[in-house]
Design goal:
By secondary structure, the protein is an alpha+beta fold. About 30% of the residues lie in helices and about 20% in strands. Among the domains are: about 110 residues, Herpes Virus-1 (2-Layer Sandwich), CATH 3.30.40.10; about 120 residues, Herpes Virus-1 (2-Layer Sandwich); about 40 residues, Orthogonal Bundle (Helicase, Ruva Protein, domain 3). Recognizes and hydrolyzes the peptide bond at the C-terminal Gly of ubiquitin. Involved in the processing of poly-ubiquitin precursors as well as that of ubiquitinated proteins.
């Protein structure tokens, strides 16, 4: 006891605001039910398994721990079955789920000699008794986070719906073909429910997302509500509505009425009976669930290294299927398992390892790949719960923090962005690079002159050309059969349904097909015209990810999932998709000049104080600079008045030319290097930094809002630069031959509902990963994938 009393200064009593971990180790998936139990640090309230508690003592110096051990109670053979009084499972009065019961034993342990004292005991110091009681009575951090996720799903009703003003300006919103009214963005678009303007969303830290035009429109007009296009479906509760004055996602109880104002009407979708087409969709859905999950098949359970399941945390199958595939790649296997131990990750982590992405990725990697939690002792493995990983990866993305189903593609891209971010400055060890490649677009206008533009990406999103189906005769016969049965009021049976079969080669070919670009401004013709765009890849990644665009909108805003099979060969060769840049004899489009360069005296520079105050209000940094210059830095109010009256000027987005009188360097070389590490070319980075006062974040915004600058810079450098540009630096390249490694399949009418399952080729056979179910696949649904992962074949 004297030793314990000497350490009382290192014992804390947890408060309501403290996160107390008592269900799972912070660096492994050990629990109180593990052989060594769990040790809770009575100073930091972090928990550690028996193998790892010594690491924490060595790092923190905290010596006093609460040891929690749960032992399974023996089940008597004559255990009576209780009669249920509630329609529930595993709760008092509900059905008995036959879960084993555990008894929990507690001790106080003092490190480093593991001196053990019993608890409860009146001989223990009062502070220790109070601290332990508080830990045991507290709601664990894991449960708190889970409850917060469920609570976060409940949106509040907006105060702006009832009296929302809607302007009758004749705007009718089509079901497809949307584009931002102020730029060329065609995704992340929001419809303002007052004026019907379609504008892009907020810019993310890395330049993804939108160009802030929707929020800028709110600051200019004060129109409060906007709905995200692409999320509108018959279930209006799942539609994303954002309130700018309330700065949150909200529920609009009059959403159907507000959408109908702009021609989006759901009343015709309310039916009391299934149509023949709907019955066919329902049959297809049941078939998908059975086929993708291999229901009814005798799956051989698999255990050991690389065969560990993931517990579904509540609609988290999108994350589980994606991460199983990710950790089947050599790059992530090496980075977070083979080349990094749990100890090294813990030593490099901050004081709280639960908030460190590197630590939690290493924990997840070791949990999935070590085989420690996949032992063949039971008929079915328990799997591991990726709670801490989900908390960390979702911290910067509120949708993934919720308990709602999400799009596996969106999660995959968000995940790779976060991994790239934590490896900033260390690209040589960044495993996300293995998925990265460069797309080059060639645009030719009627003048015959061309422009080239490059962008980096992680996935190749492919249109599915149904007209290229290989079973057209069977489809025609099936169409006649449906017509005959419909006239006879007979139902189609599941065995009679025929789906289009489209070769993957046709989908890949559609990516490179010429595409018309309307309203393209030609600097050669000094007018808007229709140009032709083609695309190819300048680099081939180590792992090629193909996204099949199976979800479309039909007329009347009816969401539809294409019932189609994709015939995917085991090996593909995309060598013919390599883009070779500007060719001999091609003439580049001239770079667009800016009117502002001629109009603005060179000696006036924007006052940074005025610019920053305007930027805080949500205005574009470049626009704020122009407002300060145009008002000769008279003040914030004068600059704002000018800005509000010139938002629609045709040259408002043109870069500012500060003139040749500037002395000294205009940009910081470190800032240039930072932008180059993001994948931008040096000449573009310098121009952006000049136009944004040297601010890296604003320069990134400027680049993405001026894609034509990147295009002209790429083409201007082409004749004199080598075939490998700055945007290509650090991106892997090799042959275009790939072998199918894995696929993620989806069941359901939308990517935000249903279920995701992964099939992965391991040790020469296909394996199904369906949450905690891991088994040898007997009939992998290769033709039903949503995401396909190919691994490069190295000659």
């Amino acid at each position: 006891m004297d030793l314990l009393r000497s350490h009382l200064s290192r014992v804390r009593i947890p408060e309501a605001t403290n996160r107390v971990y008592k269900s799972e180790c912070c660096v492994s998936f050990d629990t109180p039910r593990s052989e060594g139990g769990l040790y809770v640090d009575l100073c930091s309230f972090l928990a550690f398994g028996e193998e790892y508690v010594g690491w924490n003592y060595g790092k923190s110096g905290n010596p006093v721990y609460l040891h929690i051990k749960q032992n399974k109670k023996p089940v008597p053979e004559d255990r009576p079955l209780k009669k249920p009084t509630l329609l529930a499972i595993g709760v008092e009065g509900g059905f008995d789920n036959q879960e084993p019961e555990y008894e929990e034993i507690h001790h106080i342990v003092i490190l480093p000699d593991y001196i053990t004292l019993p608890f409860p005991s009146v001989e223990l110091p009062e502070k220790v008794r109070i601290a332990v009681d508080a830990v045991l009575l507290s709601e664990g951090a894991e449960k708190k986070e889970q409850l917060a996720s469920w609570t976060a799903d409940k949106k509040k009703v907006t105060a702006y719906a009832l009296n929302l003003q809607q302007i009758n300006n004749g705007v009718i919103i089509p079901p497809t073909g949307w584009k931002c009214s102020k730029c060329d963005k065609t995704d992340n678009l929001w419809l303002n429910l007052t004026d019907g303007m379609i504008l892009c969303g907020r810019k993310n830290w890395d330049g993804t997302g939108g160009n802030n035009h929707a929020v800028e429109n709110y600051h200019e007009t004060q129109y409060p509500l906007a709905v995200k296009l692409g999320t509108i479906s018959a279930d209006l509760e799942k539609t994303d509505v954002f309130s700018y004055p309330e700065d949150d996602s909200v529920e609009d109880p009059l959403l159907a009425e507000h959408l109908a104002f702009f021609g989006i009407d759901f009343s015709s979708m309310e039916k009391t009976e299934m149509t023949t087409a709907e019955k066919e969709v329902d049959q297809n859905m049941n078939f998908d669930w059975n086929r993708i999950q291999e229901s009814g098949q005798e799956l051989e359970p698999l255990f050991g290294s690389g065969y560990t399941g993931l517990i579904n945390l509540g609609n988290s199958c999108y994350m589980a299927s994606t991460m199983q595939v990710v950790f089947s790649t050599h790059s992530f296997f090496s980075r977070y398992y083979k080349d990094q131990s749990l100890k090294s990750a813990f030593d490099a982590a901050p004081a709280d390892p639960t908030i460190d992405l590197n630590m939690q990725l290493t924990k997840l990697g070791h949990g999935l790949l070590s085989g420690k939690y996949s032992l063949p002792a039971e008929e079915k493995q328990d799997g591991i719960p990726p709670r801490m990983f989900k908390t960390v990866i979702a911290a910067s993305h509120p949708e993934f923090s919720s308990m709602r189903q999400q799009d596996a593609l969106e999660f995959f891209l968000h995940f790779l962005d976060q991994v790239e971010r934590i490896h900033s400055g260390r690209p040589e060890v960044d495993p996300s690079r293995s998925f990265k490649f460069v797309i080059e677009e060639r645009i030719e206008c009627p003048s015959g002159k061309v422009a080239y533009n490059k962008r980096a990406d992680y996935i190749l999103s492919l249109h599915i050309p149904l007209n290229e189906a290989s079973n057209k005769e069977q489809l025609e016969s099936y169409s006649k059969l449906k017509a005959d049965k419909s006239s006879d009021e007979k139902e189609i049976i599941i065995d009679e349904i025929v789906r289009p079969r489209v070769p993957l080669e046709a989908c890949l070919a559609s990516f490179s097909e010429p595409e018309e670009v309307h309203d393209f401004y030609s600097t050669a013709l000094n007018a808007k015209t229709t140009a032709v765009k083609t695309a190819g890849l300048t680099t081939f990644p180590d792992y090629l990810v193909l996204h099949m665009r199976k979800f479309v909108f039909e007329e009347g805003w009816v969401p539809k999932k294409l019932d189609v099979y994709i015939d995917v060969p085991d090996i593909i060769d995309i060598g013919n998709m390599r883009s070779k840049g500007i060719q001999q004899g091609e003439e580049l489009l001239p770079e667009k000049g800016s009117d502002i360069e001629m109009m603005q005296p060179a000696h006036i520079f924007p006052n940074e104080d005025i610019v920053s105050k305007l930027a805080v209000m949500g205005f574009s940094y470049l626009h704020c600079q122009k407002a300060a210059i145009k008002t000769s830095n008279a003040g914030v109010e004068e600059a704002m008045n000018w800005l509000l009256s010139h938002m629609d000027d045709p040259d408002i987005d043109d870069p500012i030319h500060f003139g040749p009188q500037v002395t000294g360097p205009l940009v910081d070389e470190e800032s240039v290097a930072t932008l180059i590490s993001f994948g931008f070319e040096e000449v573009v980075a310098r121009k952006a930094l000049k136009a944004s006062g040297g601010n890296v974040e604003k320069a990134t915004d400027w680049i993405f809002s001026h894609p034509e600058v990147s295009t002209t810079m790429d083409t201007a450098a082409a004749p004199t630069s080598s075939s490998t540009r700055a945007v290509d630096d650090g991106v892997p390249d090799g042959t275009g031959r790939y072998k199918l490694l894995a696929l993620v399949s989806h069941m359901g009418t939308s990517t935000h509902c249903g279920h995701y399952v992964a099939h992965i080729r391991k040790d020469g056979r296909w394996v199904i990963f369906n949450d905690t179910t891991v088994g040898a696949s007997t009939n992998p649904p290769i033709d039903m994938g949503y995401l396909y992962f190919f691994e490069r074949i190295n000659d």
